[in-house]
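User: Teach me something about this protein's shape.
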Amino acid sequence: MKDAKNVITLLIIIILISIAAGYGAGYFVYQDYKQKTAYFDEHTQLTLNKFSELETNLKELYSNFESSIDENSVERKKVLSRIESMNEDIQEWKEGYNAVVSEIKGTIEEMKVDKLTRMVENLQDDVDEFELAVQDLNLKLDDANGSTVTKQRDGGSVDLGRISVHKNTKPKQ
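Assistant: First, the predicted structure itself:
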């Protein structure tokens, strides 16, 4: 029996040592688990922060894009209204020139003066040039209503669709 008690005592000591070793190993495994989960939690939070920054940047880019579209739309409307205003001014000038030319023609018929005849011919040429300019502006206005205004690199010209207006605009006769 003494041997049995010694064996039982030895088994109890081995079991207690095994339990203590299990608790010790569990504690170290738990500490390792805590470190790894803390590391992953930290990196998860950093990733979420990066995604949050990315979302904020995308929203800002989208709002900047919308505002630039709105600004371009306003600028286009300004350019179109300016072209319409110039067209109206040219129509008024044309009517004034036609009235002056008609008056001068009447005076020439009355006076039959050669010098006045040449002046009338010159004024008639100016009226013809203005008529061409008005027709050109009407075409540009019609085209500009359906196209966008873009600046080209060809010496400062402005493309209003299919018609270009250059710095040196002189209608061809």
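Now, about its shape. The longest strand covers residues 149-151. The first helix runs from residue 2 to 111. If you'd like, I can walk through any region in more detail.
User: That's plenty for now, thanks!
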